[in-house]
Amino acid sequence: MPPQTSPPPPEHEAASAGAALSDAMLVQQVLAGRVEAFATLVDRHHAHCLRVATNLLGNADDADDVVQEAFVRAYRHIGRYSERDRFLAWLLRIVVNQCRTRATREARYTALEPHVHEGLVVDGPDAAHTDRREELAVALAQLAPEQREAIVLRFGEELSYDEMATVTGAGVSALKMRVQRACSRLRTLLSEHLS
């Protein structure tokens, strides 16, 4: 006769069940008063939000603060979430707005650290790849905040223009123009650096 195993504790069952639920279902649970459902949303999306904030602000400590503020704001305003939007896009819009507020308050968009844009260049073990990442970070630091935001969301996060519109509140045609201008400016800055 096999040994009897005890069932997992209730909190483990809740965590496992929450991991299998969609974001929209978790939001419904939060609205019904189940705070642990929001903890599942935080666990699910924290790393993504932190990467976006770090790429936009260029400072890991500021990014961590912004993401915490964004999750607090998301919890307070979760009743405004509409299921027709992807939850992550709705959340990223809050993160981007918090980054804008922080950048305006502290003028940090122009003080990027060289390592923050590593995800925008193919990683490689040799020094040439490291140099390219640093060159790109320096060039990105020289872009206007809206152009940097467009580049990070389009190429760093690989969002579609529709998703970018949801996140930024800008129209698709305006975003395409920002990306086009940002790419042109980056080419110029990178070619000047290589000359």
Give your account of this protein's structure:
There is one protein chain. The chain is mainly alpha-helical. It contains 9 helices and no strands. It has helices at 10-20, 23-31, 35-57, 60-76, 87-106, 127-141, 145-156, 161-168, 172-194. Helix 3 packs antiparallel against helix 4 (60-76). The longest helix is centred in the first third of the chain and has 23 residues, at 35-57. It is elongated and about 55 Å long. Residues 1-15 and 113-124 have low confidence and may be disordered.
H and E string = HHHHHHHHH
Radius of gyration in whole Å, from Cα? 20 Å
SS strand fraction? under 5%
Total strand count, please? 0
Total helices: the number is 9
What's the overall average pLDDT, rounded? 80
**Sheet with the most strands, sense and barrel status:** none
What sort of overall outline do the alpha carbons produce when their principal axes are compared?
Answer: elongated
Helix content: over 70%
Report how far apart the termini are.
77 Å
Secondary structural class: mainly alpha
* Unreliable residue runs: 1-15, 113-124
